[in-house]
Design goal:
Dihydroorotate dehydrogenase (quinone), mitochondrial, membrane, transit peptide, TIM Barrel, transmembrane, 13 strands, 406 residues, binds flavin mononucleotide
Length: 406
């Protein structure tokens, strides 16, 4: 054989090798995409296979994976069509349904589009602090599996205002995104001026958020909850309102105040006094954050972990407090009800206690993404079965039932 012939043979073998690799890569990629597509439709797979495996991982690792799955749109796209009785007005917008994801899941606004795919009617990102900070040392999240609850002491781990702002701006520039996104504002651990941190939050996010949340109720930042005290709260809300008035935007971004479930009735009365003043009003309340109480989980070996407890052990207290705030405000201030919601029935209870909207977090960790559609379907049929035509019809219809028994 001469040299040319050898070269030709080598070239042919090389070409064939490349074609074969190309074929394998293409076939592999097609199989992965087809698998993922089919997988996305196999919602049951999440409940029976993915969620139990995810729960074997440390809680914070699972949390990161879940955020990544939403970020890269690898979670199932909900096929559930929201019934018209779930459509709910929200400060000039119309939510397709009143079920939102609570703060703390998507702290840095990375997963908003994926969370919309799951079927949430609105999304709250944060808590965001002005400057990036790491939060508390790990481990700082614990699953109390027997109680389907969580204790967390993340301590406002945040990428900071600017990183979150960039992501939200990008989202707003996309033509296919018209979702309702709230931004939950916090303060840095070692700030010299806590009020200034919130004021800065209003200025930075006012122009891009559909609502803002003043979070003074997380139990994991020293001194934070003291800002719920009458005088401090009055000053904080006055400055927050001034900052909003100074925004160079046409719309007035609604401001919500997120409360702790550990407040006494007197504390709540003080808060209502503050938010009724014309200098320090809020447009809505979020009831509630996590609790430092360990009622209902006393026998759990993880109960002694420091941090805020969420999930079913918090449910009754949060519903009771919704009813209390609904009564104290005469039903005039919309409430987002959150704490232990794991079914459409739970959501219905929050609404008849006085909530206009409902948020979920901990149950999603245990049940997986199909939970959102399950809650909506059950809530929708309860509304109809009980003779109502919309979520709004139900708000506060049974608030007295949930008030503390004398
Ligand atoms: C792991 C974890 C992190 C949380 N982080 C925040 C947060 O950053 N800001 C906030 O306002 N609430 C945060 N929360 C509280 C939730 O938003 C919600 O108020 C509380 O968990 C009650 O709802 P649930 O029982 O459905 O979880 C967090 C909750 C959990 C479980």
């Amino acid at each position: 054989m001469d040299q040319d012939h050898l070269n030709n043979a080598a070239r042919k073998t090389w070409k064939f090798g490349r074609l074969r690799s190309l074929f394998i890569v293409t076939a592999g990629a097609t199989a992965v995409v087809a698998g993922l597509t089919a997988y996305k439709k196999q919602e049951q797979m999440f409940r029976t296979f993915v969620m139990p495996v995810v729960r074997l991982l440390p809680a914070e690792t699972s949390h990161h994976l879940a955020v990544l799955a939403c970020k890269y749109r690898m979670c199932p796209v909900s096929q559930y069509q929201d019934d018209i009785n779930l459509h709910t007005p929200f400060f000039g917008r119309l939510l397709s349904n009143p079920i939102g994801i609570a703060a703390g899941f998507d702290k840095n606004a990375e997963a908003v589009s994926g969370l919309r795919d799951l079927g949430f009617g609105f999304i709250e990102v944060g808590t965001v602090t002005p400057v990036a900070q790491e939060g508390n040392p790990k481990p700082r999240v614990f699953r109390l599996s027997n109680d389907r609850a969580i204790i967390n002491r993340y301590g406002f781990n945040s990428e900071g205002h600017q990183a979150v702002l960039q992501r939200l701006r990008l989202l707003r520039s996309r033509e296919d995104f018209n979702g309702v996104v709230g931004v939950n504002l916090g303060r840095n651990k070692s700030t010299m001026s806590p009020i200034a941190d919130y004021v800065q939050g209003v200025r930075v996010f006012g122009p891009v958020a559909d609502y803002l949340v003043i979070n003074v109720s997380s139990p994991n930042t020293k001194g934070l909850r003291d800002m719920q005290n009458k005088d401090k709260l009055a000053e904080l809300l006055e400055q927050v309102n001034n900052a909003r008035s100074g925004l160079d935007t046409n719309k007035k971004v609604p401001i919500f105040l997120k409360l702790s479930p550990d407040l006494s009735l007197d504390d709540m009365k003080d808060i209502v006094w503050v938010i009724k003043r014309k200098q320090s009003p809020v447009d809505g309340l979020i009831v509630s954050n996590t609790t430092v109480s360990r009622k209902n989980v006393e026998s759990n070996e993880l109960a002694s972990q420091e941090g805020g407890l969420s999930g079913p052990p918090l449910k009754a207290r949060s519903t009771e407090m919704i009813a209390q705030m609904y009564e104290l405000t005469g039903g005039k201030i919309p409430i987002i009800g959150v704490g232990g919601v794991a079914s459409g029935y739970d959501a219905y209870e929050k609404i008849e206690a006085g909530a206009s909207y409902v948020q979920v977090y901990t149950a999603l960790v245990y049940e997986g993404p199909n939970l959102v559609a399950d809650i909506k379907a059950e809530l929708s049929s309860l509304i109809t079965q009980l003779g109502h035509t919309s979520v709004q019809d139900v708000v506060g219809t049974n608030s007295k039932f949930y008030l503390p028994k004398k």
